[in-house]
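[job 4471] stage=fold_predict status=RUNNING
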Amino acid sequence: MSEPNILIFDVETTGTDKQRDQVIELCAQFGLGDEAKSTTWRIRPEVAIHPGAQKVHGISMEDLQESPTFAEVADELRGLFANVQMLVGYNIRFDIDMVQAEFQRLRQEPLDLSNTYIVDPFRLWQRCEPRSLMDAHKRFVGGEFEAAHSASADVSATGRVLLGMV
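[job 4471] inference complete, writing structure tokens
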């Protein structure tokens, strides 16, 4: 049995608003192993990079002056996702939404991911280590609390959790 066609990808953007912000870097790796080949595209946006986003990824408008626009690489990027069986990314919904917004801005069809298995290690981690209020209470306060999911019990527990975290 052969390994499925796996693409791991991530984007960096001008910010987090998919209506306004744009993809400025996209990296794709084919396969899971350290030997897997990867490619990175730098993309010149048509909007300014939000200072908060630049602080996170360190990419400036000057760094992108000679880079192509998304429109110039759109066909190549569409081809990248065309026959992928499994798409992997950390907190991948953001990345997918930002790429889809780029195609929408170009008045192109969105990527068809309907037959693609999407794997998000971030969501898997959340399942392995749950982050509910009860889980936080057990970790930071010790033990469960009564009447979980009643507003007053949850408010009280949230205060105790914050104190325990601090």
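[job 4471] summary: Strands lie at 6-13, 23-30, 38-42, 86-88, 117-119.
[job 4471] exit 0
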